[in-house]
Leucyl aminopeptidase family protein
Amino acid sequence: MVPAFADADAVSRPLYVVGVDGLAAFLSAQPESVRAWLTASGFAAALGDLRLIPGGDGVAAAVIGYGTPATRARGRFGLAKATALPAGAWHLVGDLTPAQRDEAALGWLLAQYRFDRYRKSPAAEATLVLPEGCDGPRLLAMAAGEYLTRDLINTPAQDMGPDELEAAFTALATRFGARSKVVKGAALLEQNFPMIHAVGRASPREPRLLEMHWGNVGPSLTLVGKGVCFDTGGLNIKTSGMTLMKKDMGGAATVMGLAQMIMQLGLPLRLRVIVAVVENVIAGNALKPKDILTSRKGLTVEVNDTDAEGRLVLGDALALATETPTDVLISMATLTGAARTALGPDLAPYYTDDSTMAQALEQGATATFDPVWRLPFHTPYEPIIEPGIADLDNAPGWGFAGSVTAALFLRRFADHPRYMHFDIYGHTPADAPARPKGGVGQGARAILAGLPTMLGL
């Protein structure tokens, strides 16, 4: 399902947006019958509270509460509940700022998402006329990229293994005229991707590295994603938390969604996307604790936990990424539980040593309603990831700052002054406005909005 706005020429009904501070004025301007109806129904303009206003032939209009500034701050996409309106076209009426109109329009599009591959659910039939001043193509591109990300994450591993993720990647490249390349199986060893091969070799579905190039002019952006289609933990098998591990390819899904946004909008840049794709399962040839791997970069890595596999596959992918000059390098991964413990599921932590990039990202996060939070590449912790027997330890048993030490591990392979890493969750644990329970992209819209500053577009 592709999101869309109602035709601007369509006959549409008004959807009044009323905050608590404007409720009295709104009610006084209504006919007595409407005022009495809303008062009797207990409408108090609470955020997201929706009421239909009857008319001669059914529903003539609707009103939705916009709460107070405090409740709006706590309830992102609070107007998205308006997608429950009766079928037909609707237009917003209310004293909204440009940012509030953008939030309402984007929230409406995101709230229409349905994952119906295995069980059909009714589509939202109410459509919104693009609010005045909103950039329709940009909003639609952001929503379409998010839909792709959600679909990929929500699909179970039986139908979204390495083969299927490769097919989705190459289909995306073909759709936008990008060049794609796949290296898989034994060819990973032949072409020097030893850590990707080591993590994925136990699965009958071969590990692989996917690469895409798009655009011929402008500054260069390289996106790297973790594509662990399912993670049992390997021989360090997960004793809990395996249920959600179909989402361990959330980094790959998110960079693919972001790539779609960039290509759909035709941004003037050169885009490279690299995704390391594996299943981390158990077999006689599985990677073992205390094995030492020699990475593509030449760094040796002691494997102290086979369940810390994401940083291994990303290490080889990041090493490849830096072999060709790029202006900005960004990696995205569902990497550590420590990040969730620190910030919860809704807030995406990121790392960078470039303050200009951080400022651009955070301004973009605010503009696109895509929250992020900066964590530090804390250099004094570097000795923690150095085991002595090898250059690096993939899982130091320190017990502190797990997301930070994982980020420091990746920085050893990125070795780029304008590198940014996201440790995302990729999952909404309960239904929220415009974010149904299940797979979700994090950080992609913030990056998209920050690219003009990051790249000088």
User: Anything to note?
Assistant: The chain has a mean pLDDT of 96. Residues 12-134 form a domain with the Leucine Aminopeptidase, subunit E; domain 1 fold (CATH 3.40.220.10).
